[in-house]
Amino acid sequence: MGLSHNSEWFLGVDGGSLMGTKHNVALLLVVSSLALISAFAVFGLLRASRTVESSGTVDAINVEVYWDSQCTQAVSELDWGFLEPGMSVNKTIYVKNTGTVSMTLGLSYAEWVPAEAGDYISLAWDVEGSQIDSGGVVQSVLTLSVSGVISGITDFSFNIVIEGTG
User: Which H/E stretch holds residue 29?
Assistant: First the structure.
C-alpha cells in the first residue's frame, strides 16, 4: 500500500494506519475545549462549597450591649456561623446608654486572627454616629460581609468595640 502525498493525510503513530489530519486537529480541539470547560466547572464547584467559621468578642465602653430590647441578655460574643464567599450576615443587638449624659455611638474592630482576614471581611452597623440619651436603648443591626474572592482563610476571629462618647 503506497502512501498518499496529499496534505490531508499523514502516517499514524502505529506506523501502519493513515489518519486524517483535519479529523485529528478537530478531535484535539474538542478534547481540549472539554478539558478547559471541565476545569472551570470543577473550580466553580469547589469554590462555592468553601465555608468560613467565625466568632468575635464584644467590648462595650460606656454602654451595654444586649440581645433583647428589655436588656436582660447581655452580649459578650457573636458567633457569625458558617460563611461562604460573597455572603453577608446580619445580627440584631440593642445598645443601652448606662451613663448619665447623652452619648454618640461608634463602632470599631481590631485584632483579626488571622491578620489577613480583615482584608476580606468587613463589619458595619446602622447606628454609627447616632445619639443615645442617658438610660436610652437603641436597636442596631450589625452586618458582617465576606468578599467573594476570599481564599486561604478557614476560620477567623476579631474584637468588636462599641463605644459611647459624649
Answer: helix 21-48
